[in-house]
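Can anyone check this?
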Amino acid sequence: MKQATNRATRLLLVVVGFLAILLTPSNAVEKRAPQHALSLSISRSTSPSHADLASLIRRSGYDVQQHFAETDDGFVLGLFRILRGSSEEAPRPVILQHGLLDSGATWVLNGRERSLGFILADRGFDVWLANSRGSTYSRNHTGFSTESKTFWDFTLDDMAQYDLPATVEYVRRHSVPGGHEPVPVGVVAHSQGGAIALASLASGALRPDHVSALVTLAPAVYLKYISSVPLQFLADLHVDELFKKLGEREFLPSRVETSDLFGEFCSVAPEQCASILTAICGFNEQNVDTSRLPTYLAYAPSGTSVKNMAHWAQRVRAAERKEQDGFSFRRYGDGDEYDLTDIRVPVSVIYGVEDKLADPVDIRHLIDTLGDAVVFEKGLLGYEHIDFTWSTNAFTDVYPQVVRVLDVEARLVAHEPVHR
């Protein structure tokens, strides 16, 4: 018991120390860079850069287009459109929405046969990789630079209010030939992405008739029974108050130096790297090929705002008040609760029984709250949080159900025959 406690303590110190490094301003990292010039140059030569997502897609045998959608509050979101592969079916638009500290790259990192983005393209879907504000591919604004505090003054509430609606509308207008009526789009959302999508629908920012189906993978909505030790630890420290004092700025900056340094660390110490990732959000080594961690970490973490992390910390702290507060999905600060009882879009919920962030009990409450909106649910034994995007087994365990739901709902919307 004592040995396990000491191990957990050391792990927490490593995690907190690593977060401290990643919160260091960019100029401080640049000043330290010469000390690590040799290892960083080696890392850059062996792992991809944040900037080459389009090249990664092309190397897998697909054409790709990069688009930019402007939100009502001025953010410019990067979108990657995977042009269809081997399927001859008419395109049906689908948006893949990533989770916290991730980017659209997460859907195409396991090659042609095992990545959801490519699988959907081969099945005739018009695939669009979304990127939330502040992440690697959405770091532009019509009025502010990333050096401005105003740029980083956002939480997932703003992603729900502005980002997803703008993305859906852009895809609706650009996925059909000119002169044709826009069609509803399918949305697949992982982790925080699921929370964004449901909040967007609940608030009315996203019109239900613009979405043919929502498939949520490990949706991190209710956090009452979260068991991520580092996140609980940070919540106990009232780290959201610390984040407020840090002000509007970037959290986990998506710098090449950061990704290369962590990628190099994972290549030389994969067990320690895996321990850190497992403690924070969790993955099952039976599902994830740990030799590929440097590749995954060349694209993650992808930045967000300190204010967004403060919002997460507030939500995690609610887990410690479970006796008096019950389940909660509340806007930032003292904002109102999101009411998920009147969602009018077909929702599928696929989750991991071993998930530390999206606990099965929290997921069950979500399913019960959504009620008749849920058209499909499935819990997967042995699956943790990151497994839904990084797992090399998800192409058989998860993605066939995703494809099936999207196919059925798209055909129902189009009044086409459904093959059950």
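Reply from J.R.: I decoded it. The chain has 18 helices and eleven strands.
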